[in-house]
Amino acid sequence: MSDDLTIAAQNIQTPAQSSRPLAFGRGWLPTLLLLVVFAIAWEGFKTLFNIPDQKLPHLFTIFSEFGVRTQGGNGPTLAVTMLKNAAVTFGEALLGFTLGGLLGCALAVLFASSRLLERGLLPFVVGSQTVPILAIAPMVVVGLGRLGAPDLISKAVVAAYLTFFPVTIGMLRGLRSVPPDALALMRSYAATGGQTFWKLRLPAALPYLFTSFKVAATASVIGAIVAELPAGSKSGIGVTIINAAQYYNSRPPVLYAAVLVAGLIGLVFYGAVALAERLIIRERKAE
């Protein structure tokens, strides 16, 4: 019976399953061309309007800062320092992404199984996202810190706060994307609710889920960076950005370099999720 259900579920074509995920790495050439155009526009705008380096440094000056040694020339290069801080922020974002993803999936399953729960709880889920993260982060970080929670956990909770909402909405949309005929076919095989979920609903929800994961990946990085600001942290890209802003008058390129690294963290996280999407969905299609 289980094998028959598997074959029946695989033969059901849903709109979400019929669409191929974007190939990983496709479109690199247009991206590179856009970067070149952006660099030319940056330098051209600076030269045309004679903008001083204090307001808009040259791109070469920004990238050359990565090779400058910190601590008055006695410490590691700025690139090494940035890499260490980026690793801290990435760990916080990854933990927050995991916690928020699990919470979002659990809420979506509950809402899909009960309209009453959806009507009662979904407004609170939506309403939670209307509160600015800058107002939530200090309360969460300081409050959990006074309760004895490690800094990593408190910052991850802030990241999870931004992560769970897109996962909840995307997963719920995917679970309900199964055509009624497909559900009727599973019932004709006397499939249980669990069998229908694992063999039909969850596979149909995967494309929607990974789309939400991509949004959540970048949101978790933002949450981790914001959570580092009120915590009195000693490491993290958020701390680096604050320190660079304080010394902006003397070394403005450092702030631009810190913002660039923060953006690269989000790109790496997004790329990892896109790669996982390609591997998992391709593997399911090959079964």
H-E string = HHHHHHHHHHHH
What's the CATH architecture?
Orthogonal Bundle
Question: Gyration radius, to the nearest Å?
Answer: 23 Å
Beta-strand proportion: under 5%
CATH class: Mainly Alpha
Structural class: mainly alpha
Oligomer: single chain
Look up the CATH topology. MetI-like fold
How many structural domains are formed by the residues? 1
What's the number of extended β-strand segments? Answer: 0
**Any low-confidence stretches, pLDDT <50, length ≥5?**
13-25
Main sheet properties: none
Mean pLDDT: 86
Shape: globular
CATH superfamily: MetI-like
State the separation between the terminal residues, measured CA to CA: 18 Å
Proportion in helices? over 70%
Describe the protein.
By secondary structure, the chain is mostly helical. It has a single domain (2-12, 24-65, 78-286), classed as MetI-like (MetI-like fold, Orthogonal Bundle), CATH 1.10.3720.10. It is 77% helix and 0% strand. The protein contains twelve helices and no strands. The protein has helices spanning 2-11, 15-18, 28-48, 59-64, 78-113, 115-128, 133-146, 151-175, 180-188, 193-228, 237-246, 252-286. Helix 5 runs antiparallel to helix 6 (115-128), helix 5 crosses helix 11 (237-246) and helix 5 packs across helix 12. The longest helix is centred in the N-terminal third of the chain and has 36 residues, at 78-113. It starts with a helix and ends with a helix. The model is unreliable at 13-25 (pLDDT under 50).
